Amino acid sequence: MAKSQRDKGLRGENEVVNLIKEVIPDARRNLGESGSQLVGVDVLAGSLRMQVKRWKDYAPISKLDEVPNGVDTIRALVTRGDRQSWVIALELTDFLRVCDDVTVVYDGVDPNVPPF
Questions:
Q1: Residue 68: inside a domain, yes or no?
Q2: Which residues contact 70 (CB under 8 A, 6 or more apart)?
Q3: 46: number of CA atoms within 13 Å, CB side?
Q4: Lower CB density within 10 Å: C or N end of the chain?
Q5: How many CA within 13 A on the CB side of residue 25?
Q6: Residue 52 in 3-state DSSP?
Q7: 112 in a domain, yes or no?
Q8: What is the per-residue pLDDT across 12-71, written as a single tens digit (0 to 9) for each?
Q9: Cα 111–116–17 angle (5° rounding)?
Q10: pLDDT recorded at residue 81
Q11: Residue 95 belongs to a domain
């Protein structure tokens, strides 16, 4: 991998961390990849384990398989194509867990008004 590609990936990881820190303050890059259970995880934020990909076009959804499964973790692929916006891919079961957490947070709020 060329230095320019590594630098592009590093910038992408830092950008994602900075965006997520606005909502999840403990978001951070995973710097200790080798020899750990977190190989394939670029960003950690609460129970989220994220693989970040900056490609010319968006990364294929199959890259989500690079993120290891864990107990009570949510796997995500965060990707951005050149001059495009960030998108996130989750397995349906993980997405439903996130929705359930949002429902718990907004329990008691008027159901006719969207929470955001």
A1: yes
A2: 37, 49
A3: 11
A4: C
A5: 0
A6: strand
A7: no
A8: 999 999 999 988 899 999 886 555 667 778 999 988 899 999 988 999 999 998 888 877
A9: 140
A10: 92
A11: yes
